[in-house]
From TrEMBL:
One of its GO terms (biological process) is protein localization to membrane. Keywords: Membrane, Signal, Transmembrane, Transmembrane helix. GO terms for cellular component: cytoplasm; membrane. PROSITE patterns: PROKAR_LIPOPROTEIN. This is Transmembrane 9 superfamily member.
Length: 636
């Protein structure tokens, strides 16, 4: 009867979660989907849709919609593509454009975009020119898409997508005076691969060569012809209070031998790939050797201890070292609820990370699917809340805790609440800046709905099942009166040992961390998920290894307060991650307050996630180790 009720309640819970998920997504302006990767072929004369995305700068880290530029030409009706949550959080806003590109027709002919846009004024006022100057000063880049391929500048590094909005130069001998020029003409170069036995082709490359050209518009009538007028022979300035700007373009097609399924390879070719490979292999070998060395030391030390403690005819039966504290080793820690909440949050981040890496390695989260990685991280974090509730409650029961429902509430709202609070503050500043990365009301409601409608119920669900499981019996009895801890050697000081313990896990990931931060803050693609998965495995082993070693040294010093230290030893690597983020900040040349706030807020979230992740790995490793050794000895 109880089994039937449990099954029925489980079905009702899953059904309600599914309904809530559909309702919140349907009511929001963010749709959670991974874009399709099916090949699209084009026939001769078919119009190729060129879509505009955002403008971004590595100096401000604040993206804007392309059509936030008041001077650019817009189509008669702007149509937004359906975007997933990851695209919205990254500031991607994909919209249609006024560019007319018939496939394999009018090759190389210069056209005026103002003609096709119909409502694009040639005369640009002071306000729009000032906006262009500010964006050029901040070195903003334009991002376009054709058939899902991001634009890259002609004969430039493919990893740096987009092309510059304009350029600036100093005027005369006055270093304080700056002239600004906009790239108002683009030579669009489309590479195509001819489909065998068919009249259709695939788009396999998209490049743009931007130019700044001032046209003679004195006798030009945009309503009569779309052909470009004569050039004045100078660049198009935007430094005065009023300018006549024609936005022009030409299109050329080049046949390519690149297959459709290989068209993204050029975006992943980095100049420092050999350094990347060498660094990863070097890090892997160092950690592997250290692991073997530490394992050998631990095995020899423990075997000697077991022989001494379990010897039947031992001459000296006096207990020393870690066996001497067997009556206090499972004494509950201080602030057990706080520790169990951190452990549950760490397990949630752990499962989110592992599942995401598996999907990425299998190719489901390709950079070709814009925003898929960020969307997967958020959705998986929400659904992995069931593990947070389960393991948090189990840890709380290990600590002899009684009020598991209160512990569940803290687990459901503590770590997610901190992340959401930081995100809310960031979003307010982004909305104040008019950035496209600001989340709208619909998406905001969807995020809150996922938290309260899916994550929180899953936490309680996991906690409920954990509360029904019996607590494993301790292998040794706990004394009623705690024993006094002897004076510790200086290097076993809790603060020093915790900081020392975090070095090894950080050393396993800091090289890969450089590539991740470079890709994230320099608007580049990160694609070597197989290496990242290897680094994740190394991180798991090193976090477990250093926690066990430091725990063993602590127990040998007859200090039984190991619960918190087992979490903090490996978790302290997050301190080094945060300080590394601070040192990396010097390479970005960010000066605006909102940009600085954005960088350090996201770095804080990343470091907190790294803290609970590595800390929970260290805790469960030490818990297994302590139970193992104390269940293997004979207590008199």
């Amino acid at each position: 009867m109880m089994m039937k009720r449990s099954t029925t309640s489980l079905k009702m819970l899953l059904s309600s979660l599914a309904v809530l998920f559909i309702v919140f997504i349907g009511c929001s302006d963010a749709v959670f989907y991974l874009p399709g990767m099916a090949a699209k072929d084009f026939a001769v004369g078919a119009l190729i849709p060129l879509k505009v995305n955002k403008i971004s700068s590595v100096h401000t880290q604040i993206p804007y919609k392309y059509y936030s530029l008041e001077s650019v030409c817009k189509p008669e009706r702007i149509v937004d593509d359906t975007e997933n949550l990851g695209e919205i959080l990254m500031g991607d806003r994909i919209e249609n454009s006024a560019y007319e590109i018939p496939f394999l027709e009018d090759e190389g002919e210069c056209k005026v975009l103002n003609y096709f846009a119909k409502d694009c004024n040639i005369t640009v006022g002071e306000r729009a020119l000032k906006q262009l100057q500010e964006r050029i000063e901040a070195d903003y880049k334009v991002h376009w898409l054709v058939d899902g391929l991001p634009v890259r500048e002609y004969e430039k590094s493919a990893i740096d997508t987009g092309f510059r909005l304009g350029f600036k130069e100093k005027s005369g001998g006055d270093s304080k005076s700056t002239l600004y020029y906009v790239y108002n003409h683009v030579d669009i170069i489309l590479m195509y691969h001819q489909k065998q036995g068919s009249d259709t082709s695939y788009i396999v490359g998209f490049e743009v060569e931007p130019k700044s050209i001032a046209y003679d518009t004195s006798s030009y009538d945009v309503s009569n012809t779309y052909l470009c007028p004569k050039s004045k022979g100078v660049a198009q300035s935007v430094s005065s209070k009023s300018e006549s700007i024609l936005w022009t373009y030409s299109v050329s097609f080049k046949e390519s031998k690149v297959l459709w399924n290989k068209r993204w390879d050029v975006y992943f070719e980095t100049g420092d790939s050999s350094f990347h490979w060498f660094s990863i292999v070097n890090s892997l070998m160092i950690v592997f050797i250290l692991t073997i060395m530490v394992a050998m030391i631990m095995m020899r030390a423990l075997r000697a201890d077991f022989r001494k403690y379990n010897a039947i005819d031992a001459e000296d039966s006096e207990e020393t070292g870690w066996k001497m504290i067997h009556g206090d080793i499972f004494r509950p820690p201080a602030r057990p609820m706080f520790l169990s909440v951190l452990i549950g949050s760490g397990v949630q981040v752990f499962f989110m990370t592992v599942v995401t890496m598996v999907f990425a390695v299998l190719g489901f989260l390709s950079p070709a699917a814009i925003g898929s990685l960020a969307t997967a991280l958020i959705v998986l974090f929400v659904f992995m809340a069931m593990f947070a509730g389960y393991f948090s409650t189990r840890a709380f029961m290990f600590f002899k805790g009684k009020n598991w429902k209160k512990n569940t509430l803290y687990t459901a709202f503590a770590f997610p609440g901190i992340v959401f609070g930081v995100f809310f503050i960031i979003n307010m500043f982004l909305r104040g800046s008019g950035s496209s990365a600001a989340v709208g009301p619909g998406s905001f409601a969807a995020i809150i709905g996922m938290w309260f409608g899916i994550s929180v119920p899953l936490v309680f669900w996991g906690s409920y099942f954990a509360s029904k499981k019996p607590v494993p019996e301790d292998p040794v009895r706990t004394n009623q009166i705690p024993r006094q801890i002897p004076d510790q050697i200086w290097y076993m000081n809790p603060y020093l040992s915790v900081l020392m313990g975090g070095i090894l896990p950080f050393g396993a990931v800091f090289i890969e961390l450089y590539f991740i931060l470079s890709s994230l803050w320099n608007n580049q693609f990160y694609y070597i998920f197989s290496f990242l998965f290897i680094v994740l495995i190394i991180l798991i082993f090193t976090s477990a290894e250093i926690s066990i070693v430091m725990c063993y040294f602590q127990l040998c010093a007859e200090d039984y307060h190991w619960w918190w230290r087992s979490f903090l030893v490996s978790g302290s690597s997050a301190i080094y991650v945060f300080f590394y983020s601070i040192s990396f900040f010097g390479q970005l040349q960010i000066t605006k307050f909102v940009s600085v706030l954005l960088y350090f807020s996201y770095s804080l979230i990343m470091s907190l996630a790294f803290f609970v992740l590595t800390g929970s790995i260290g805790f469960f490793s030490c818990y297994w180790f302590v139970r193992k050794i104390y269940s293997s000895i004979h207590i008199n």
